[in-house]
Amino acid sequence: MKAQVLLTGFEPFAGDARNPSSEACALLDGSESRGHRVRSLCLPTAFSAAALQLLREIARNPPALVIATGLAGGRSEITPERFAINFADARIPDNRGRQPRERTLVRGAPLAYASTLPVSRIVERLRRAGIPAAPSLSAGAFVCNELFFRLRHALEGSKVRAGFIHLPYASEHVVDRPGLPSLPLATLAEGLRIAVAVSLA
After folding, report:
1. What is the mean pLDDT of residues 168-175?
2. Which residues pair with 84 in a beta bridge?
3. Lowest CB count within 10 Å: 49, 96, 121, 130, which one?
4. Structural domain for 158, as ranges
């Protein structure tokens, strides 16, 4: 069996009908990169539940690389995150009605974990390919960050590279919302394809 890459995205949330993160990942499902088979997984936009599902999948089918993705509405670029923080402070409820405020995620764990993806090289390669990209300091304090933190906490000390990339809206999803920053869904998928290849190099 070929070594595997796991890409994850989220289900729609906050009233949106679609989420480009899960759709972009799905476009790469079954593809290959540097001898690795790519799999995609759509996670619930819910505190605890998303991380639990991801970690169970990693235990069942250990990957060589994990890239989690999520939507950052309002951004105009693909933004690999540098840090996951040990903190939750949700400005809106998740899809199961939970809204933790000013809470530590894992007691006794570090204040933050750095991504083990080559963030700067990913951004450089995306820009060279004509895809807008920029590094981002942290993944915020909502479900995306919680997933990223618990993922890194679980994999700390292992050889598995793991990180998080935020995506803007897909242009196809916001045709009725003029002026909202977006990129075509195919461009988002190509950006993730490049990120996988760079991370495996």
Report:
1. 96
2. 113
3. 130
4. 4-200
